[in-house]
Amino acid sequence: MKNMHWFPLHRGICYGAILFCSGLLGGQALLAADAKATKVPIETPEEDPLFTNWVDLTLGGLIPHGNMAQFRQNNPTLGPVFGGISDMHIQESAGKAIVTLDARAIFANSDYNVKLDITLPDVGYIRGGFTEFCTYSNGNGGYLPPNSALPNSMLADGLFFPGQAFALYRGSLWVEMGLRVPHFPEITLRYEHAFRNGQEDSTIWGGAQTGAPAPPGVNTGVSNVRKIVPAYRNISETRDIFTFNAKHTFGKPESFGNTEVNLGMRYEFDRNNNSLNFQNLPGAQPTGTSANNYYITQTDSLSLALYDGHISTVTRFGDKLWLTMGFSYSAASSDIGGNRIAGPANGVAYSPMYNGLWYAGKSGAYLDLDGGSNFGQGVATLNLMWKPIESLQITPSVRVECANTRSTSSYYTQYGQGGGNGSQSGVQLTPTLVDSHVFLTAISQCLQIRYTGVENWVFYAQGDWSEEYQSRGDSTPGNSFSTPNSVLNFSANNSSLSQKYMFGANWYPLPNLNMAVQYYLQLQDFSQDIHSDDPVQSNQRLVGQSWNTSDVNFRVTWQPLPSVSLVSRYDFQRTTINSQWAADPGLLTDSPQGALFTAPDGQSAVITNNMFTETLTWTPTDRLYLQGSLSYVLNKIASPAAQQTPGNGISSADVPGSSAILNFNNNYWTASAGVGFAIDPKTEIRGDFTFYSANNYVNNEQYGVPYGSSASEYTFSASLSRQITKNVRLSVKYYFDTYVDQLSGGNSNYTAQMISSSLQVRF
């Protein structure tokens, strides 16, 4: 392949002028030689040319084995063969204008990025670009391993429903123009069209019938339906965004009281047409005329128009006092629509019965959802930066937000039963109308202090306070749009208070050693005053909750030798959560009619998190370097609910599988290592290794679906790079990845190898 060099006319004129001047200088030297003795010329070393443009070409292949959907989720590579332009940069001058093109195009992976920039100094610029990339997901649902406690329910290798491999494409097309004339307001206009199209997996799984009775001694019963059947979403979304921004400084930059004003406006229009698709109870036989094995398709459409305007100012009263103010107002209106239909397959039209089987009313099906909402929000901010002395900086700030949302929706539900002989008599589509509103007021304050008056020390402190008040209500007006026995009149007044206090210090005792310590305490309190005159609904409601979080972390950066650098960090965090719940009278037979029963306040969870990270960089010689890092995380959420088992009331949650609700553990190791060696000035080799391991799986399948990651992943790569000429470099890379997952019963395991090469040409 030949490299085509662009040789514009103006560059030829420049080269001709250089040759002409060289000839004149050469003639003058010859004339001088006649009058003077011949001098020995001084040789100067040849300098390497400066290349400002380049093109990187790549080509690779994939050798897969196992679950490729999981591999692509961890490594967004489609394969089996991919290639294209991994990076390209071209910059040229056209008169006074500078034209820059940056691009990337990996064809098999749908990885594209193109940006064109034309800049005219002291005038402005115009830019445009296109970006597209793809994310992949594994559509497998849950997995139930074999369990002797559930006879006649498990397959020989466990119960598992494999899903599909899904791909979701994301991208945007945009253009931007900016005016940058000295002593004139800076003006920027931008338009962007963004999109998401494709499919992705969902954790809203359908149910699978295990056929197991409740364990002995369990009075409340244990559901024999486990939510493990895969689900997926069809995604079709677009966003059109128009923005305008302007900035201008009034007064000279060095003058007292100069003010910078920023003005912006934004309009956004969104269109979403998505659907959720899943199957419920596959293989279940009908009971009479009722279909127990059915598919659910929930379509959701949204049209949203969002308007936003904001203005901010920065006034500089010298170097020691700055004042910043800002205000923004946003307004939005939306329309929603959709259906939730049960049928013998995904995407079928609504019908109460198919082939003599009853599908109406399954899993909360509804028809003709319609409605929308209107939203308004105002936000004001005020910040002050004050330096009373050179070593002390104080920054107070305040933020006030007010928001109002009103929404309405209507839909048709199925009411009544069909005839016992499979007829549709008695079936009614009953409309339901719901109104809701939310009013929000939030006030936040912050105070930051930074002090550098002690040699080699930096001290800082910060306090944050936030108060939020919310009033909301939901109701179904008592008219023909109300489904019988489902009238709702619910209202709540919520308030929350958040406080955060942070202290920290950085110490620089030696040029090659520095340390940092930080501590913060965060307190959050939430309360809710509920009123509901709906005596038939049976729900638990959170009426109060408090969070108490303490966090301390240390960091040490040390360079014991010029060739060795160490960075160590330790974090500890602990959060306690206390909660108070209220229940509707439908849950308690001894509760007064229409009154909520409020349980005593109690601890609902304790979250602890320990994390240690160590990083090492060592360069023993000019040609050799080594890098390594190690991180260990211990994370646990403990709840009193884990002590309650359906069978015997209270037992130890530490016994595997002894509780329907388990304490959550998220403990894992990550490690990485890399080494590079320069064989000669033109040849370099490099190797990299990564490791991940988690062991948090607990099999409590007798009571529910097991969760908790227990997986390990190893990756290894080796590369060789060779400088062919001053402007051409060739490299080859080998990559190996293996993944083992216990949570999926090995159904997500994979091993993959990848070989790629790249060629860089600079000019």
Folded structure, characterized:
Residues 1-40, 213-221, 587-594 and 647-654 have low confidence and may be disordered. The relative contact order is 0.08. A hairpin with a 3-residue loop joins strand 27 (644-645) and strand 28. The protein starts with 8 loop residues before the first helix and ends with a strand. It has 763 residues and is mainly beta. Helix content is 4%, strand content 64%. It has helices at 9-35, 68-74, and strands spanning 54-66, 81-94, 97-106, 111-120, 124-138, 143-144, 159-160, 165-179, 186-209, 225-250, 258-280, 294-316, 321-343, 353-354, 357-358, 366-389, 392-415, 428-451, 457-475, 489-510, 513-532, 540-561, 564-583, 597-598, 602-621, 624-638, 644-645, 649-650, 664-665, 668-680, 683-695, 710-725, 728-741, 750-762. It contains two helices and 34 strands. It has a 26-stranded antiparallel barrel. A two-stranded antiparallel ribbon has the order 6-7. A two-stranded antiparallel sheet has the order 14-15.
Helix coverage percent? under 10%
Low-confidence stretches: 1-40, 213-221, 587-594, 647-654
Radius of gyration: 34 Å
What distance lies between the first and last C-alpha atoms, to the nearest angstrom? Answer: 15 Å
* Count of β-strands: 34
What's the total helix number?
2
**Category from helices, strands and their pairing:** mainly beta
Quote the average pLDDT.
85
Using the alpha-carbon principal axes, give the shape. globular
Sheet-strand content, in percent, reads over 45%
Major β-sheet annotation: 26 strands, antiparallel, barrel
